[in-house]
Amino acid sequence: MRYLLKLFVPGMALAVCVGALAQGPTYKLGRTPSEEEIRAWDIAISPDGKELPPGSGTAKEGAIIYAQKCTKCHGPTGEATPSGSGLVRRIGPNNTPSPIWPLATTLWDHINRAMPRYEAGSLSANEVYSLTALLLYWNSVIQQSDVMDAKSLPKVQMPNRTMFVPLHPNYKQHMACNPNLVKCFDSASEK
Length: 191
What we know:
The chain is an all-alpha fold. Helix content is 43%, strand content 2%.
């Protein structure tokens, strides 16, 4: 028993030291990102569309882009396919895309970040505006000739917007903080 105790105590001391080293501040891996890199990653679009880039598009322009880049997954008319979800609203309360997007800026943000599949982020701002306009047109939210841009898109009233939790009154304060910083987020909500 005494022999095991003599091995156990140094073993525990070694384990604690290794654990402490693992918590050290320097691993000599990676680097702090530059301000330019952080700006490139910070692509979130707020409800008021303040971060929307310059550009514009119409449903007619979107139809051409859709035919080239979207039909593979979403079908030629926005109907669901085995490899992609439907994009055209159906009769009833729980159909896409209008019911799942409370704000047109959120739809723009999703297309910009995630489409086309396996090529996310490859669309230009004009292409994203055009595709957003096409989906809004197909779902009878806007007219075919309406131009979507950074000024007009945030003004679009989505049909199912009232079915979502309303924006926090201080959402702009929350957007100013990095939401991953809980302390910052909590202090903004207390004000």
